[in-house]
């Protein structure tokens, strides 16, 4: 089971972001379902918490992260688990993202099943 998330950080009034979104719309439904297009900035103008956590500095940016499950025992011996995402890959710029997206989808998702 692949445990990866593919985030595409975009913002309004960003021509490269618009071009990338147009490209994403040409992908199959399975491919589009694997991409989470998320805002770079909050309505207040500050970076979103997700953009800050992955140190995204420009748009568009593709971030691939791995979902880890971190577990620990408390003093009573009970196990507590939390999900944690760790950065695997970051691609900045519409042209670079468009060029790398087919191989990225192959590597990290089930959007392209083996025949």
Name its key features.
single chain; 115 residues; alpha+beta; Glutaredoxin; four-stranded mixed β-sheet; 32% helix; globular
Number of strands: 4
- Rounded to an integer in angstroms, the radius of gyration calculated over CA atoms is 16 Å
Query: Main sheet, how many strands, which sense, barrel?
Result: 4 strands, mixed
The CATH architecture would be: 3-Layer(aba) Sandwich
Number of domains: 1
User: Ends: how far apart?
Assistant: 18 Å
Q: H/E series, N to C?
A: EHHEHEEH
Mean pLDDT, to the nearest integer, reads: 91
Estimated helix fraction: 25-40%
Q: Strand order across the biggest sheet? A: 2-1-3-4
CATH class: Alpha Beta
Number of helices: 4
Assign the CATH superfamily.
Answer: Glutaredoxin
Structural class: alpha+beta
Short description:
With 115 residues, this protein is α+β, with helices and mostly antiparallel strands.
């Amino acid at each position: 089971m692949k445990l990866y998330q593919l985030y595409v950080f975009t913002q309004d009034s960003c021509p490269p972001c618009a071009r990338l979104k147009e490209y994403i719309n040409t992908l199959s439904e399975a491919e589009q379902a694997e991409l989470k297009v998320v805002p770079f900035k909050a309505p207040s103008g500050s970076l979103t918490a997700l953009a800050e956590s992955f140190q995204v500095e420009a748009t568009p940016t593709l971030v691939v992260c791995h979902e880890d499950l971190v577990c620990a025992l408390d003093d009573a011996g009970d196990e507590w688990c939390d999900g944690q995402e760790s950065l695997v890959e970051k691609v900045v710029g519409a042209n670079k993202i468009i060029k790398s997206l087919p191989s990225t989808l192959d590597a990290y998702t089930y959007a392209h099943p083996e025949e």
